[in-house]
Specification:
CATH topology of the largest domain: Nucleoside Triphosphate Pyrophosphohydrolase
CATH superfamily of the largest domain: Nucleoside Triphosphate Pyrophosphohydrolase
CATH architecture of the largest domain: Alpha-Beta Complex
Bound molecules: iron/sulfur cluster
Structural class: alpha+beta
Radius of gyration: 24 Å
């Protein structure tokens, strides 16, 4: 439950299922996960995004190994990376503790059912309070799952199925024709357009990649040398030329990649070199070693474009 809850944060069920199955096969229990290296865990996580979740899961497993398996909501909240929602979901569903659970689905049901016109932190606070007051304490796990499921399948963000909703008769939004207005929307963050230029050094059937430094997107994963060329393309390319002097980049391809509200145009260029000489911050990898590396999704896409050039 813990693994699936973490994977499902900001990620669709269909995207999670194959990752979840692979992950549970490789790490069937806390001990197996606690003993894994960060690279092993990240390699299995790649494609799911938001890699901080993976690191926190690993940290949590090591914490449990030292401190014992938590059971109550309060104990679960001591585990690194476990917040109010996850702790309450595990404690109520797996251990039967009488605590409410509020996710985005429950917030939406609450706002419509009660006609609450708050948003953000205040909506959240009132939704938790409401869920606490209305909890069915005899079977909190089923109750919490039922509420979340109602939000996910009946009281959906668009076109809710009010005609088949068991709460329709007491729903303020339904009775007052305000369903489409609730919950009151948060303002959308404006899109930011970015240009990333990536050079793919290849020599002797090998490719050069570097570990992404702390503080950057995708930190700790591997990438081909990449620069942000959004503001000043010439200066960005000069940085790459400084790393690989005398290079003659050949265009590999380009594509769009979206990270939250950032729309990134990624341009990939192949740089053929005579020998795998040292490149600042990079290591050379042969064909067989590449699959074990954790790469962010756009870099894995570039790797697919570059594979034909390593035989
Ligand atoms: S009646 Fe409609 S708006 Fe109200 S809780 Fe049910 S599905 Fe949601």
């Amino acid at each position: 439950m813990w693994v699936s809850e973490v994977m499902l944060q900001q990620t669709r069920v269909e995207a999670v299922v194959p990752h979840y199955l692979r992950w549970m096969e490789r790490f069937p229990n806390v001990l197996a996960l606690a003993r894994a290296t960060e690279d092993e865990a990240l390699a299995l996580w790649q494609g799911l995004g938001y890699y901080r979740r993976c690191r926190r899961l690993l940290e949590g497993a090591r914490w449990i190994l030292e401190n014992g398996m938590p059971q109550t909501e309060a104990e679960w909240r001591s585990v690194p990376g476990v917040g109010a929602y996850t702790a309450a979901a595990i404690a109520s569903i797996a251990f039967g503790e009488a605590v409410p659970v509020v996710d985005g689905n429950v917030e939406r049901v609450f706002a419509r059912l009660t006609g609450c016109r708050e948003s953000g932190a205040e909506l959240k606070r009132q939704a938790w309070e409401w869920a606490r007051r209305n909890l069915f304490a005899k079977d909190p796990g089923s109750w919490n799952q039922a509420l979340m499921e109602l939000g996910a399948t009946v009281c959906t963000p668009r076109d809710p199925a009010c005609g088949s909703c068991p709460l329709a008769e007491r729903c303020v939004a339904k009775q007052s024709w305000t369903v489409a207005e609730l919950p009151v929307g948060r303002r959308k963050t404006a899109s930011v357009h970015l240009l990333h230029v990536v050079w793919v050094p290849v020599a002797d059937g090998r490719l050069a990649l570097r570990r992404i430094p702390p503080g950057q997107w995708w930190e700790g994963l591997w990438e081909f040398p990449r620069v942000d060329a959004t503001e000043d393309r010439d200066r960005a390319e000069a940085t790459l030329r400084g790393m690989i002097p005398g290079a003659w980049p050949e265009r590999l391809g380009s594509f769009r990649h979206v990270v939250t509200h950032h729309k990134i145009t990624v341009e990939a260029w192949l740089v053929r070199l005579e020998a795998p000489n040292p490149i600042d911050g990079c290591q050379w990898f042969g064909r067989d070693q590449l699959d074990a590396l954790a790469l962010p999704t756009p870099q894995r896409r570039i790797l697919r474009l570059a594979r034909p050039f390593i035989g």
